[in-house]
Amino acid sequence: MGDIRVAFWNLQNLFDIKASEIAADLEFTPDKGWDQTAFDSKVVNLASVINMMHDGQGPDLLGVCEIENKEVAQRLIDGTGRDDYELAHVESPDIRGIDVSLIYSRNVFALDGDPVGHRIHFRYPTRDIFQVKLSVLDNNAELNILVNHWPSRKQGQYETEPYRIAVAEHCASIVDDILKFSRNDFLGLQDTEASLTELNKRWNRNVLVMGDFNDESFNRSVLNNLLATRDLDHIEEEIERSGNRNIPTAKAYLPRRAYLFNCMWGLVGQSDIGTLYFSESTNTMNLLDQFIVSRGLFYGKQKLKMDLGSVNIFKPSIMTTRKGRPIPFDKKTKKGFSDHFPIECIVRKV
To answer: Which residues of 159-179 are buried (b: 16+ CB within 10 A; e: fewer)?
Structure first.
């Protein structure tokens, strides 16, 4: 049946050359040097890296962020030369006018329902959590994807942390909705073995959370609020009987939180390993781009299984400095790519 090649990439301000209505992208206009030639050059550069991913086969599933709109995303797809790529996209209300998108191969997936952009409002709307449900064509497996781009650290890591915590809680709530019965639906269940089977069928659904979280895997937003951990103790238990009952009590089930497994922990703490060079003062790389999975996808409960050994940072020599840093795009020289490295992984069909 083959494997599913997955990637995520922060494209670093892939804007069109027109000023938006809210004028938050005025630096990306022709009078500022962001002209058609610069835009076309960046698309060519980005597309060349996408085609290099997964040993030159390219991804079957690619989440991207910092892309301005549907038209720009489609231009990127066209740049890859792949005629099997489809775009899932919903315009977000982000104040800077930048979106997240999901690109998928129609040879591998079919879209199952309409994508949903979940808005998170502070004093202004921020980037959405983009929810897409796909089905795998050759084994009919379901894959629920949440593409994220959490609030920036630019005004200070700790000053902006509450924003990322708020988005993490919202994302965790979406995960709970996917993996758990609602209160009313649970209370409507009969106390039978069949009901327990249905509870576990939902609990074991395939969820892949990917994105630029602007926090590390050990930061509070990811670890304590999204509940994305490296501890198998948190994800190993299925829904179990309660005493003489076939299903748990409402008191036991309804407060239960759906933990996730963060696939990036194998890369944490290694010298010069990361996706973004954020702080010259500390001379360290940050691993802000991550793959996170549900217990079902971790254990291969429903026809798909994350291959942890395949998780890696894609950094070919053409997009890497001599010090191992990513090369951002330069609108003057028309060289470079993004200030982030992409990440890759393989999802096995089982």
So the answer is: ebbebbbbbbebbbebbeebb
pTM: 0.95
The mean pLDDT value of the chain amounts to 92
**Which helix (H) or strand (E) is 134 found in, with range?**
strand 129-136
Q: What is d(CA 205, CA 321) in angstroms, rounded to the nearest whole number?
A: 41
Residue 152: band (very low, low, confident or very high) from pLDDT cuts 50, 70, 90: confident
Residue 52 belongs to what H/E stretch? helix 36-56
C-alpha distances in Å from residue 96, one per residue of 28, 162, 339: 11, 19, 18
The counts of H helices and E strands in the chain are 8, 16
In what order do the strands lie in the sheet containing 61-67?
85-89, 99-105, 61-67, 4-14, 343-349, 304-313
The predicted pLDDT at position 269 comes to 81
Q: How far apart are CA 22 and CA 237, in angstroms?
A: 48
Contact in structure between 341 and 8 (CB atoms under 8 Å): no
Structural domains in the chain, CATH included, are 4-349 (3.60.10.10)
CA gap 27, 30 in Å, rounded: 9
Q: How far apart are CA 251 and CA 279, in angstroms?
A: 46
